[in-house]
């Protein structure tokens, strides 16, 4: 029983009315509100920058805030991606199950796109297929180095990824942008001169420079 004074619901913005010992009523206001009827907004919730997208705009409300989200973003703080979401005020996701269902459906959609793009057949073909370079498609079998195309800066006239580490030196690919042709152009070291071989092994890293051992082979 709320009593006569609380029957008119005098407390605003979610305030709770209770009878006062001396007669009348008092309003218990939520955080950020003040005044006899919780009508005064005493805290700007936007000061904490709650909106989680750089293009979102925060609008202060009595005891609350709303985020105006750009297209494809939703959630109270614009924290969720939804390709079908129009620009507008973010909507709160009420239960965790709704969030899980959203991501589950999105993953199912992405996996179907992988099948439509024949990504299972392209996986591991040593060619970065951008349409398959995402989690749902197993990152194209690592052909794009887990999300990064290693050949993106390679401008050689041939497809260096097709001759990568094939044992043949392709000079067009022998540069940093084309990953040095998988070291195919690196010359194999000749064996150490047998005259010095045993001596160099015994005196390796002894703090003295022996000119007969001062070469890559030894």
Automatic annotation (TrEMBL):
InterPro entries membership: EGF (IPR000742), EGF-like_Ca-bd_dom (IPR001881), EGF-type_Asp/Asn_hydroxyl_site (IPR000152), Notch-like_dom_sf (IPR035993), Notch/Slit_guidance (IPR051355), Notch_dom (IPR000800)
UniProt cross-references to PROSITE patterns, sorted A to Z: ASX_HYDROXYL, EGF_1, EGF_3, LNR
Domain (LNR): residue spans on this chain: 114-153, 154-195
Localization per record: Cell membrane; Nucleus
GO terms under cellular component: cell surface; plasma membrane; receptor complex; RNA polymerase II transcription regulator complex
Superkingdom assignment: Eukaryota
Database matches in Pfam families: EGF, Notch
Protein name, as recorded: Notch
Native organism: Chnootriba sp. C04
Gene expressing this chain: Notch
């Amino acid at each position: 029983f709320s009593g006569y004074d609380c029957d008119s619901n005098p407390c605003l913005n979610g305030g709770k009315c209770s009878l006062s010992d001396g007669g009348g009523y008092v309003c218990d206001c939520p955080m950020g509100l003040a005044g006899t009827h919780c009508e005064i907004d005493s805290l700007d919730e936007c000061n904490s920058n709650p909106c989680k997208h750089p293009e979102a705009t925060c609008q202060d409300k009595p005891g609350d805030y709303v985020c105006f989200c750009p297209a494809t973003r939703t959630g109270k703080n614009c924290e969720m991606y939804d390709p079908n979401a129009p620009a507008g005020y973010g909507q709160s996701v009420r239960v965790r199950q709704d969030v899980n269902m959203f991501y589950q459906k999105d993953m199912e959609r992405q996996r179907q796109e992988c099948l439509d793009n024949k990504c299972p057949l392209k996986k591991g073909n040593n060619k970065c297929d951008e349409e398959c370079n995402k989690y749902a498609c197993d990152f194209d079998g690592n052909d794009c180095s887990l999300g990064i195309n290693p050949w993106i800066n390679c401008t050689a006239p041939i497809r260096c990824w097709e001759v990568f580490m094939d044992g043949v030196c392709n000079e067009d690919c022998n540069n940093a942008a084309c990953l040095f042709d998988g070291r195919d152009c690196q010359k194999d070291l000749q064996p150490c001169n047998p005259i010095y071989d045993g001596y160099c092994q015994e005196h390796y890293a002894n703090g003295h420079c022996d000119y007969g051992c001062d070469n890559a082979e030894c």
